[in-house]
Each structure stands twice: as structure tokens, then as C-alpha cells.
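User: Before I run my own analysis I want an independent prediction to cross-check against. Here's the chain; please return only the C-alpha cells and, at the end, one sentence I can use as a sanity check.
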Amino acid sequence: MKILVIGGGGREHALVWKLRQSPRVTALYCAPGNAGIAQDATCVPLKISDHSALIAFAETEKIDLTVVGPDDALAAGLVDAFQARGLRIFGPTQAAARLESSKVFAKAFMERHGIPTARSRSFEDSAEAHRYCQQLNYPLVIKADGLALGKGVIIAQSPWSAAMAIYEIMERRKFGEAGRRVVVEEFLEGEECSIHALVDGRSYLLFPGAQDHKRAYDQDQGPNTGGMGTFSPPDRLLTPELEKQIRHEVLDRFIAGLKADGIDYRGMLFPGLMITTDGPKVLEFNCRFGDPETQVLLTRLEGDLLPLLEATLSGQLEATQARWKPQPAVCVVMASGGYPGDYATGKTIEGLDPVPDGVTVFHAGTRRSDGAVQTAGGRVLGVTALGEDLPAARALAYEGVDRIHFEGAQFRRDIAAKGLLP
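Assistant: C-alpha cells:
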């Protein structure tokens, strides 16, 4: 089979890395890819937003399956465009992807179908949002309605910070059209947990859990990012009893909601959860593989990823099983200095080869220039390790991090530390 992966980040590198291991894959392409992906696939210099060029490539090369990585491609209707030409593609349609691309739409879906989530209200008028926030207790959470690279969520500790958040999102348009509407919701206390499930419209296949680290700095300080690291499985947090509750209250109700609303959803569902004293509550729906969760999940997946993707498209997940390595995995993200704010690129990366046995370095924001691998984004690398236990995986990941150097590199030193708590 000929496979095309859409995207150029760490998630896409992990997908390419895993698909390359399939004995059925005869040719593997990635558009646009990055310096690391180029070691595992043929990179095609096409923009994710250029649907006609991507379709032309898929038709010319007789691509058998296209796998979409980024959320913005789904929101822009890339799946619909491919399907209209009879091309096989993995990912939800534009209408189904509204569950991620519009938090207002997702909130209404959750409330309609009894999926536990934070109490909230949405606003298109900034003055109304200001007045509403003056009536609430703090802290509270203000979210841009649309896609904002994981950064469109602001925790307001006071009426002043809420007013500034509304101004930045709705009036200054810090996140562009994503801030045309905002969701104001209650602040939930607890620990975050990520789950992934392949969904074929009728049933789902649940992956192991993972625990992400969204804040930029140690001890969960600083601004939100796209994710500074993750580990799997989070056994201390995601107990068998809690998983059963998540299946019943989130995933089963999600499937029932799809059927009730006539939504044909085929792809990956990645709900971000807050585990509260009242049980799990959905923070947001993501309609694609997570980043950096994909890096640890695919490191733990035994066997072939391709049949799982195919079963999703053909509606055969009920008859499909996946096997997982019992060893935990840890991913530490190395980012450019200043991320998630302003940062410089073009810094030469040293120490990528060799890495310790058991470590895989997934590239995110990298490019090759003048024979050297350079930084080309905010999140640069995802240094991922599999170990006999969580302390071993964590130590191995940081051993890999310590061998890699580029000017201004920043990373957290406490990734997976919460998994070691009693």
C-alpha cells in the first residue's frame, strides 16, 4: 500500500514511524514533513491548506490511504475534499470535526447528551462576556471558540484578568477568527488525563491513557502550550474503576449522541479530561491524535497500526483488538527558548545521533539546512523512551534529552513525576 500522512509535527513523525513498520506499506509519503520525518518517509513540499495540490499528488501517485494529522486540516474540510474525489482518507469530516473546531458546538453536544463537563456560557459580544464575568466566583476559564494551537485557554484569577482575557481574545483577536466567540466556564479542580479512542460511528476502540503536561514550566507553572511532555499509562490516576466510568459516561454517551444527531464520525477521538472529586469531566474534544500523546501511545503499540485505521474506516472496530506493551513510555518535549511566546528559529541541533538504546527522537519543528538539522518551530523535539517501569522510562528519556543541544532549548524537568506520587 501507498500511504500519505498529512502534517509536519511530532504527532505526524510518530505516525510515519509506526506506519513504516507495517509489512503492507510499500511507499510512505508525508506532506510537508520535517527533517526527522524525512528519515522515514519521502517528504512532499505541499502546504496542508492546498487541498487541490494534495489531491493531485494522491491521484498521481495512486495513494491508497491518506492519514490526516493536524486539527486545522480537518476543520478546513480536507477529508471532505478527498472523499469527493473517491480517495480513501482517515479522519472525520468537516461537520464531525466541529466537535473540536467549535467549543460552543462541543459544549452544546455534551450538554444535550449528558456527557459530564464544566458549567459554561458562550458569548459573541465582548460586553456581555465582561458583564457575565463580573457576577462569577474566581478562578474561571475563558476559551476561544475555535482552534488556537492548544493555547486558546486562559485561566482568569480575578475580574481584571478575565477582562484582559476577553479583550485579548475577542477584541485584539490574539487567536484570529478563533476568538470570534468565547466560552466562559467554571474552573475545575483535579488532575488532567488524556484518553484516545478510534471511533467508526457505531463503536470505539479505547487506547491506553496518557497524562499530558500543558503548562510551559515545572510544577505546572506558566502559560498553556501545545504540550510539554506526557507519559503512559497513568496508572495512579486512571484506575480500572475510573476507566469503566469514562467508558459509560463519556464514550458510550458520545456514540449515542452521534447516532441521535446523525453525525457520521470516523477517526480518532481524543477527549481531554479533568478527573475531579465528582468524577471525570470533559474539558474539550479533539478529533485527531494528540501531540505529544501519540508519541508514547504508538511507542507502546504492539504490531501494526494500519489495520486499526482501516477497521475504523470500514466500521469494523467491534471485531478489532489492539495489543499494548506493558512497559510505560515517557516523552519530554524540547522547545525553542521563549515558547509559547516569541521564539527564534534556525538554531543548529547537535547530539541527535546516537541516542541511548530505547530512546526515539520524534521531530516536530525541525528542518535541514546546509547539511545540519535546525530548529523551525516552537516545539522542536519529542524525546521518547520505553522502560521496564516508569522511573526507568523517565530516566532514559532525560538521558536522551541531556545529549541533545541547541541554543535556547527549554524543557520541563518534571515530566511524569506525578506518576511516581503515592
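Sanity check: The chain has a mean pLDDT of 95.
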